[in-house]
Amino acid sequence: MCLAAALVGVLVFLRKQSLLGESLSHASYPGVVVGVVVASPWITTKNEGLVIAVAVAAGAFVTAWIGLLVIELLQRKVGVRIDAALCFVLSAFFGIGLTIASHVQFTHTTLYLKMLPYLYGQPATMTDVHIVIYGILSLVILLMVILLHKELQAISFDRDFAASLGINVKTIDAVILFLVVLAVVVGIRSVGVVLMSAMLIAPAVAARQWTNNFTMLLIIAALIGLVSGFLGNYLSVEGNRYFSRGDAYWRFALPTGPMIVLVAGVMCILSLLLASERGLLWRKLRALRFRYRCICENILKTLWHFGSENEIALEVVAKYQDISSIYLKFILWRLSSHRWVNNTKPRYYCLTNDGRQWAAKIVRLHRLWELYLADYVGVGVERVHRNAEEMEHIISSEVEEQLTQLLHNPKQDPHDQPIPSKDFVI
Amino acid sequence: MMMKTTLIAYSNPYLGKDFFQFFMQFFRRLWAIIMGNVSSGDLVSDEVQIFVLVGISISAAVVGTFLMLRHMTMLANALSHTILLGIVFVFVVGRSRGVFSQEEHQGFNIQALLAASLVMGVVTTFLTQLLTKTMRLQEDASIGIVFTTLFALGVIFVTVLTRSAHIGIEVVMGNVDALHVDDLRLVYIIAAINVVSFSLFFKEFKITTFDPGLAQVMGISVGFFNYLLMIQVSLTAIGAFRAVGVLMVLAFITGPVLIARLLTHSLRMLLVLSCVIGSVISVVGVALSRHLLSIHGISLSTAGLVVCLIVVSYVFTIVIAPRCGFLAAKVQESSNSHT
Fold first, then answer.
1. A83–B304: do the CB atoms touch at under 8 Å?
2. Theoretical Cys-Cys bridge with B121: which of A39, A66, A328, B234, CB 3.0 to 4.6 Å?
3. Which of residues 267-286 of B touch A (CB under 8 A)?
C-alpha cells in the first residue's frame, strides 16, 4: 500500500499537484459510505469482509473519480481557481458523505461501525481478504508505473517534448489521474481518508532531496514508503506493549494509521535537513565554509597590502576585518598552522611564500575584475572596487584565463595599481 | 451522535413542525427574543443551532473571501487540520487542571481555546513558510507535509491521552445537536473578532491581497497581515469544530464565497453577499433537518445537510447566474445568432 502510494505520489509531486490527493481522498468518503450501504443486502457472516472491501473499493473509486471530474469542470467551465476548487470539492463531498452516514448511523448502527475504520484507518483489523484485494490493486499500480515508465518520465518534465515524441499526452494524463484515484482507494483502509494525502506527498518530497534521477526517485520514494509502513506498524505495536506493561489503566491502542504518517513525516523532515546535495544542513555548511575562505583571503590580502615581507601587528590586521577578535585569532592560528602565515613573534604576522602566492592571486583577480568592469561593462572607476571585493573570491581559474586574454594580459588596473602576474614568484 | 430525540425531551416549540411551520415558529420566537421575553437559558436546541451556524457562516464568509482572493484556501484546509493538536492540548491541560467538569460537553474553556488556535495558526503558517522559503519546497507539498504530520500527531495524542477516538471523530464530524449556549458565546466572540478586524483593516487587507508590491511601498507589512489572516482562519476553525467539524467548516469558508463570486465583482458586495448566503443556507438547513425529522422521521446530521444545501445552491447559481452562468451564456449565444 505505502509502496503504491509513494510511487503515485512522485508523479503528482512532479506535476505540482500534491494536494490533489488530499481532495480525492476526502471525496472518496461518500463512496465508502454508499459502498457499505449498497453491499449490505449481500452480507452474511461468512463473506462479510470480502463483500464490504470490494464494495467500498468500488464506491470510493467512483466518487473519487466524480470528485476529480468536478474539480476539472469547476476549473474549466466556471473559472474557479484550483485551490478553491480542491477545497470546495473536499468539504462538499465529505459533507455529503457525512449526511448519508448520519442517516445510516440512525437506522443501521452495525453498518455504521463498518465505515468507521475508513476514517482514520485501522490496519490492525485487516484480514487476509483485505491483504489480497489491496495487494492486487497495489500490484496493478506498480505494473502500470513500470510499464509506462518512459512515458511518465517524459510527461512529468516536459509535456511539449513528450507530445513531440508521439506520446499521447491526454491518455497518459488520464492514466496518472487513474493511478492517483487507485492509490487513494488502496490507502484509505490502512491510513484513513483524512491522512491519505500524507502517504502521497511525504515519500516523494523526501526522495526528491536525495536524487535528480526519475527512476531513482521512484525507487527511493517506494523504499521510504515501505519503511514508514513497517516502522509505523512496528512502533504502534511496540508502543502498545510498552505502555500497557506498567499499568492496566493505560491500556489503549496507539493508532497505526497516524503512526505511519508520523514516521513518514519525520523521515521527510530528516531528509530535508540532512540530504547530501540539497539538505538544509549541508547548504548552511557550504555557506559557512565559503565565508571562512573569504575571511582567510581577506586577511592574506591585508597582509599583502602592508608589504609582503613585513611583519604586521595583530591590531593592524584587525582594523581591516569586520569580525570579532577571537574569531580573527582563531583564523590566523589556522592560517599559520597551514603554513600560509608565519607567526614569528607573538602578535606579529608575516606571509610565507605560499601565502604570498595566494594573496597575489587574490589581488590579481581583484584588479583584473576591476579593469574588466571599467573597460568592458562601463562601470565608473570609482565604483568598481566594491563589486571586485566580492568577485575576487568567486572567479575560477578558467574565468581568470579568459579575462586575461580578453584584456590582453594587462599590467595595470583602473586605479593605476600593478596587477601581479599570473605566476608570481618572489 | 444524533441524539436529537433525547435533547428535545423537554418542551421544544419546534417539535413536530414541518418546513414552513418551522419558520413561522422561528420568527415568533425571534420576536420574543428581541423583545426580551426569552432569556438566553431558555433557547432551545434548534435556535442555538441556528445562531451558532449563522455566526460560523459570518466568520467563515469574511475570512473565506480574502482566502479565495489570495488563492490560499488550501492553507485553510491545513489550519483546520492542525488545530486538532491545539484542541487536544487544551483538552488535556484543562482536564489535568480540573478546569473542565466531569461531564464531557461542559465548559470548554474559551480563553484556552482562543489561545490554542492562535498558537496553532502561527505555528502552521510559520512551518509552511519555513519549508517553502528555507527548504525550497513547492508550496502545496510543504502545506501537505506540515498539516498531515501535525494532524497525525494530534490523532495519536487524542487516542493516547483520552483512550478513545471519540474526540477525534467528533472533531472531524462535528455535532450540532450537542451544542450548548456556551458555544454560542464562543462563536459570536470569534465572529466579532473577525468582523472588527476586517472593518478596521479593510484597506490594508485589500491592498495586501491585490497588490503586495504597492503595500510594501506604502509601508504596510504584508507578512503581518498574512499571519493575522491565518490566525483568524484558525479562530474560525476552532469556533466551528464543535458544530460542524474541522472539515466541513471548509465548505462554509469556500461555498458561499464561490456562490457570491458568480454574482458580483465588487469586494464589498462579495463580503456582504457571502455572509448573507451563508446565513440563509444555515437557517434553511436547520429548518430542513427539523422538517425531515418531524414529517419523514429521518434524522440527518444538520451540518452535513447544510453542506449539501451549499452544494445545491452552488450548482443552481452556476446555472442561472446573470453574468457567467450557463443560462446567461445560452441566452447570449441565441441573441448573437439573431443579430
1. no
2. B234
3. none
- B48 contacts chain A (CB < 8 A): no
What is the bridge-based pairing of β-strands A348-351 and A312-313? antiparallel
B237: containing domain: 16-25+43-338
User: Across-strand partners of A349?
Assistant: A312
pLDDT at position B101 is 39
Whether A26 and A125 map to the same domain: the answer is yes
Neighbouring residues of A8: CB distance < 8 A, sequence distance ≥ 6? A21, A141, A145, A176, A179, A180, A182, A183, A200
Cβ–Cβ contact B137 with A under 8 A: yes
Closest alpha carbon within chain A to B261: A80
| ipTM given for this complex | 0.74
Stretch (H or E) spanning A303: helix A280-305
Query: Which of the listed residues A150, A168, A196 is the one where a domain comes to its end?
Result: A196
| Nearest-CA distance A330 → chain B (Å) | 30
Residue A135 belongs to a domain: yes
CA distance A309 to chain B (A): 45
A33 and A171, same domain (yes or no): yes
Q: Å from A360 to nearest chain B CA? A: 37
Q: Tell me whether residue A263 is in a domain.
A: no
Q: Are B278 and B57 in contact (CB under 8 A)?
A: yes
- Looking at the structure, tell me whether residues A9 and A141 fall in a common domain: yes
Cβ of B169 within 8 Å of Cβ of A119? The answer is: yes
**SS3 at position A30:** helix
* Residue A401 or A113, more confident: A401
Q: Please indicate if any CB of chain A lies within 8 Å of the CB of B306.
A: yes
Give the number of domains in chain A: 2
Interchain CB contacts (distance < 8 Å): A and B: 200
b or e along B48-77 (b: 16 or more beta carbons within 10 Å of the residue's beta carbon)? bbbbbbbbbbbbbbbbbbbbbbbebbbbbb
Q: B145–A87: do the CB atoms touch at under 8 Å?
A: no
Q: What is the pLDDT of residues A341-363, one digit of tens each?
A: 777 777 777 777 777 778 888 88
DSSP element (H, E) containing A242: helix A214-246
Specify burial of residue A400 (Cβ count, 10 A radius: 0-12, 13-18, 19+). Answer: middle
List chain A residues with CB under 8 Å of B311: 92, 95-96
Asked if the structure places residue A26 within a domain, the reply is: yes
C-alpha torsion sign, points A182, A188, A193, A198: negative
* Cα-based torsion angle of the residue sequence B111, B115, B116, B122 in order, rounded to the nearest 10 degrees: 160
Q: How many domains does chain B have?
A: 1
Residues 6+ apart with CB under 8 A from A145: A7, A8, A11, A152, A179, A218
User: Which chain A residues are Cβ-neighbours of B278 within 8 angstroms?
Assistant: none
- Check which CATH number belongs to the domain holding B70 and give it: 1.10.3470.10
Is residue A229 within 8 angstroms of chain B, CB to CB?
no
> Which segment, A52-56, A221-225, A243-247, B6-10, is predicted with the most confidence on average?
A221-225
Collapse the DSSP code of B300 into the 3-class scheme (helix H, G, I; strand E, B; otherwise coil) and give the result: coil
Asked whether residue B31 is assigned to any structural domain, the reply reads no
Can you give the residue range of the structural domain that contains A316? 282-351
Cα–Cα distance list, A156 to A166, A181, A244, B89, B235 (Å): 15, 18, 48, 42, 39
For residue A125, CA distances in Å to A121, A256, B270 come to 9, 10, 48
Which residue in the block uniquely carries the three cell numbers 582594523? A319
Assess B265–A contact: CB distance below 8 Å, yes or no. Answer: no
